Amino acid sequence: MQSSINVAVIGGGISGLATAYYLERDAAEARIPLTVTLVEKAPVLGGKIATERRDGFIIEGGPESFVTRKPWAWELCQELGLNERLVGTKNGKNYILHDGRPAIVPMDPVSFIRSPLLTTNGKLRLFKEPFVEARTDPSDETLGSFIRRRLGDEALENLVGPAVGSIYLSDADQMSVQVSFDRFAELEREHGSLVKGMMAMMRSKRKAGGKNGKEEKKAKPPSFATLQTGLMELVETLAERIEGDILTGTGVTEIAYDPTNAPPFSLQLDNGQSLQADIVVLALPGYNMADLLAPYDEEIAAELRSVIYNSVTTVTVAFNAAEIRAPFDGFGVVMPAKETSQLLAVEGMSVKFPHRAPEGQFVLRAFVGGHNAKAAALSDRDLLILVRSELLSIFGITAKPTIHSIFRWPQANPQCGVGHLSMMDGIEEQLGEILPNLYLTGAALRGLGIPDCVRQAGETTEKVLANIKETVGPAV
Which among 54, 75, 148, 256 is least surrounded, fewest beta carbons within 10 Å? Predict the structure, then answer.
């Protein structure tokens, strides 16, 4: 009998790292002898998580925090013993560029009525939402279609569209609502309206609070969380906890499969060596998955390549706070397509997480790219000139930066269109027939962002171990 089942996880971003960690943890609990080897082409782990620490600054090149409403990343940090390292922030002010100036997103009735972001007709259209007939067709639709139906054109163009463009680097009219904002679609399915659904949620929370009024209340997590020295802490901690081998700077060029061999998979590495495995997990962007799977099924490869990835460049700049007359007081400002700004968004890093910079420094982070691929491809010098020009126009900042940092992310985020989830279901079903014991996980499948990647890692682990128990049974 084989002494241990060998699993190769290809990809060392958060998806691959979490999968490797969960596989080892859950296999040990189930007393399944399992050895994990993680292979990452880049010289460092983390994927899109990239933290630069220098001169007292903590600069995030990719994601700078994660939402806790989706609990999986928060729970993973707790499990890893990072609870004392977590730094949270509550909801802050958010802005949308309007006629070249930041206009605050209204959060109460008075500010909503006064807001310039919507016309009177646009505001009245929002009030009609509870009376709009619910869609009964359970099939997927674009986020743009959903928002237009429920909230109107202005809400999409002036509120939702800019936010989607900055977060997902995508066009709401191209995005699957099931992938991007399934919570919205769920509220409509269950309550017939977003407003009615949110009111029902509030009543449920109040009712639960009343029942537990005399009990000690569990501390509510912050809206957003990060780690004291950056999100790379999560990457570094996962790498430390994984007992199997981690091969960085090593790419997989080919996957050979022969069911008559034991183990059946042979991974050809770009250093001339090979890695044998009983089970393979691909935690890669869709286009990289396609390259490895094309020899076995061109249709699967074509479907994976059909998922478009947009590029983005982040430009972080710091200033002496004393040189800025009126520092931006928001978490961020996003730019509607109708504005002339060449940026997607600007984040107020000093407001959101002030611990990330030395005292007296004021930090902003600009996003360039998405629909404006030409701007994202500018040289470092021209990018900095562009960003400084935009910050002058939007915030009136004339000061010279004390430090700047540029991170480029070609093919950064997958743009999951209508029917994406059913397409992925079909791909996995087909793979199960031609390459059993090969699994897919990650942002290309069923949800972007750190929490969803962690969730999918757990789900992939469950599938792998369930299949091992079913096929090997008591022999393990």
Answer: 54
Instruction: Name the amino acid, one letter, at 461.
Output: T
Q: Are residues 272 and 408 in the same domain?
A: no
Number of domains in the chain: 2
Same domain flag for 428 and 409: no
Q: Where are the beta strands (DSSP E) in 24-83?
A: 34-39, 51-54, 57-60, 66-67
Contact 371, 171 (CB under 8 A): yes
C-alpha span between 303 and 169 (Å, rounded)? 21
Question: Which pLDDT does position 216 carry in this prediction?
Answer: 52
| 94-98, strands of its sheet edge to edge | 101-104, 94-98, 332-334, 345-347, 361-369, 308-320, 403-415
Tokens of 298: 């061109």
- Which amino acid appears at position 127 of this protein? F
Tell me whether residue 202 is exposed, middle or buried, using C-beta atoms within 10 angstroms of its C-beta: 0 to 12, 13 to 18, 19 or more: exposed
Asked if residue 278 belongs to a domain, the reply is: yes
Residue 336 lies in a domain: yes
Query: Is the domain of 245 the same as that of 379?
Result: no
Please state the pTM of the whole predicted model: 0.93
Which pLDDT score, from 0 to 100, does residue 36 have?
Answer: 98
Whole-number Å distance between alpha carbons of 345 and 349: 12
- What is residue 476's predicted lDDT score, i.e. its pLDDT? 42
Q: What is the CATH number of the domain that holds 34?
A: 3.50.50.60
Q: Residue 256: which domain range?
A: 5-47+233-307+417-475
Q: Could you tell me which residues are beta bridge partners of residue 408?
A: 313
Render 302-358 in DSSP notation, one character per residue. HHHHTSEEEEEEEEEEEEEGGG-SS---SSEEE--TTS--S-SEEE-HHHH-GGGS-
CA distance 440 to 281: 6
* One domain for residues 385 and 249: no
326 and 465 part of one domain: no
Q: Are 318 and 402 in contact (CB under 8 A)?
A: yes
407 shares its domain with 421: no
* Low-confidence residues of the chain: pLDDT under 70: 1-2, 208-218, 472-476
Residues 315 and 402 in one domain: yes
